[in-house]
UniProtKB/TrEMBL annotation:
One record GO biological process: electron transport coupled proton transport
Protein name per UniProt: NADH-ubiquinone oxidoreductase chain 5
Gene: ND5
PANTHER family, A to Z: NADH-UBIQUINONE OXIDOREDUCTASE CHAIN 5
Class of this enzyme: translocase
Length: 581
């Protein structure tokens, strides 16, 4: 136990120091307007050389700073949360591998090393999702890894197409070759790959299923690592993508994802799945503003969202821990009376998610929605943005009503406590960042303020839809809490709307059944059937029969010589008799 605690502390210490080093380095790069491009020659043979490249600019270093801050908090949090785990060292090593894969992806200007980080994220996420090793975890792990393999295949195809340019350093070609046909193919493949990693429609089913992982992993995955990899890749390829028409399809798909996740979260009762669907909604927001060409706004929201989403998952983990490992929000209630500090962190992170003024989410979300209002878009995209913003407030108020206002519904003898100081310290660090990171980043990232000129009502539209969402969320929760269960919106439609528009059945379980069934038949009839008969097993049987015959001759050679001598003498005698006659 002593060793595992020391491993947690050492990992936390090094990641935190790395975060401070990145912060100083990022400020230096920003102040001097510098980009550092490093190349390390691994091997050189005749005219071929294998190089490892690193791109260190303000964006990659700032993102690494946020990843290391969140992962250090998560590891410190795991020291208490996973204290009953026998293999805590294995868990910490898996988390560190996960973080290392993300760092490799962040600093890579080369599509090969990006693929190494990308695939590393997929493989380690599978190990973490199936960590508890039960049937639910195995199903969720297979769903996660098979969905992400589509993105891996897209990146492999990008690697193949980039052979046309003589180098895999994509950063040299995104500006110069953007009109080229090969680059249009590459941009399409990159967009599909990013859609799988960031769980856009129709690849959304794996993200709520990945909640089978331990809660510290969920905090890491949903804030700054796995799901943000697709967004970050599109940010890096932004100059290329804005030249293609395929980006308009991404705008529509990401808007629908944002809306679908908001609707589904309103009819979900699993605490972790509600927060997972809110992540899906925010990913749709990032993807959609990115597809409009505002990559700096997408990156800004990516960083602010990482802070309060990690805190939200940590609070949820602590509540689930205290609720006897129960995740159903209908059993919770009155938490603000029993665990005030955790409730404070939960409420502030939820309000930051909703974009309440002067918290972290407000600075990025408000700016994005005002840029949408000013842009030349059709009404459908406009309505998708604002409905989704209202739905965010809707499911947040519903969740807070169930958790804080409702009466306590678990066992009457159960004691709640708010004294786990290891968890609280890591949560309070992220609480501070959820309060101040929005304003800090808005000063750092933007060289000049965005000048947004809008009519008065359009300027206040965000506040209008947020207030409407809050009002509807409170009303719906009160109807549920005070037993008006027959209300049609909450009773009849909930079973349909919580299924994410039947996406798991349509694009995952329905497709998987046919493909896995085909795979089983192919394995039975070809791999273990005809190919075995005519290749492996067939050759083995022929060789075995011949070797038995040869072995018989070798082991019985004296008898065979004598037998052959007798046969030969009989033959000679028979031949002589015929010859004499």
């Amino acid at each position: 136990m002593k060793n595992t605690n020391s491993i947690c502390f050492i990992s936390f210490f090094f990641l935190f120091m790395f975060m401070l080093m990145n912060m100083m380095f990022m400020l230096y790069l920003l102040m001097n307007n510098m980009v550092i491009f490093l190349e390390w020659e691994i091997i050189s043979f005749n005219s071929m050389s294998i190089m490892f490249s690193m791109l260190l600019d303000w964006m990659s270093v700032l993102f690494m700073m946020f990843v290391s801050l969140i992962s250090s908090s998560v590891i410190y949090y795991s020291k208490s949360y996973m204290s009953s785990e026998l293999n805590l060292t294995r868990f910490i090593i898996l988390v560190l591998m996960f973080v290392f894969s993300m760092m490799l992806l962040i600093i890579s200007p080369n599509i090969i090393s990006i693929f190494l980080g990308w695939d590393g994220l997929g493989l380690v996420s599978y190990c973490l999702v199936i960590y508890y090793q039960n049937m639910k975890s195995y199903n969720a792990g297979m769903l996660t890894v098979l969905s992400n393999r589509i993105g891996d295949v897209m990146l492999l195809m990008v690697i193949a197409w980039m052979v046309n340019y003589g180098s895999w350093n994509y950063i040299f070609y995104t500006d110069l070759m953007c009109k080229d046909f090969s680059m249009k193919i590459i941009s399409m493949l990159i967009i599909i790959g990013a859609m799988t990693k960031s769980a856009q429609i129709p690849f959304s089913a794996w993200l709520p299923a990945a909640m089978a992982a331990p809660t510290p992993v969920s905090a890491l995955v949903h804030s700054s690592t796995l799901v943000t990899a697709g967004v970050y890749l599109l940010i890096r390829f932004n100059n290329l993508l804005v030249q293609t028409d395929f980006i308009l399809l991404l705008l529509l798909v990401s808007g629908l994802t944002m809306f679908m996740a908001g609707v589904s979260a309103n009819y979900e009762y699993d605490l972790k799945k509600i927060i997972a669907l809110s992540t899906l909604s925010q990913l749709g927001l990032m993807m959609s503003i990115l597809s409009m060409g505002f990559y700096d706004l997408a990156f800004f929201h990516l960083l602010t969202h990482a802070m309060f989403k990690a805190l939200l998952f940590m609070c949820a983990g602590m509540i689930i821990h205290m609720m006897n490992d129960n995740q159903d929000i209908r059993y919770m209630g009155g938490l603000s009376l029993y665990i005030p500090v955790t409730s404070l962190c939960m409420n502030i992170s939820n309000l930051a998610l909703c974009g309440i003024p002067f918290l972290a989410g407000f600075y990025s979300k408000d700016l994005i929605l005002e840029m949408v209002s000013m842009s030349n878009l059709n009404m459908m995209i406009f309505y998708l943005y604002y409905f989704s913003t209202g739905l965010t407030m809707f499911y947040t108020m519903r969740m807070l009503m169930y958790l804080m206002v409702n009466e306590f519904n678990l066992l009457s003898t159960y004691n709640l406590y708010d004294e786990d100081f290891v968890m609280l310290k890591s949560m309070l660090l992220l609480l501070l960042m959820s309060l101040i990171s929005g304003s800090l980043l808005s000063w750092l990232i933007f060289n000049y303020p965005y000048m947004i000129y809008l009519p008065f009502n359009l300027k206040l539209m965000v506040i209008y839809v947020s207030l409407m969402g809050m009002l509807f969320g409170m009303l719906m929760s009160l109807m549920n809490l005070y037993s008006i269960n027959k209300f049609i919106l909450t009773y009849e439609l909930s079973s349909y709307l919580s299924l994410m528009w039947f996406m798991p059945n349509l694009f995952t379980y329905g497709v998987n059944f046919k493909i896995l069934n085909l795979g089983q038949n192919l394995m039975k009839n070809i791999d273990l059937g005809w190919s075995e008969l005519y290749s492996g097993q067939g050759i083995y049987k022929i060789l075995k029969n011949y070797s038995i015959i040869f072995n018989f001759f070798q082991m019985n050679n004296f008898k065979i010589y004598m037998y052959s001598f007798v046969l030969w003498m009989m033959f000679m005698l028979f031949f002589n008799m015929i010859f004499i006659v």
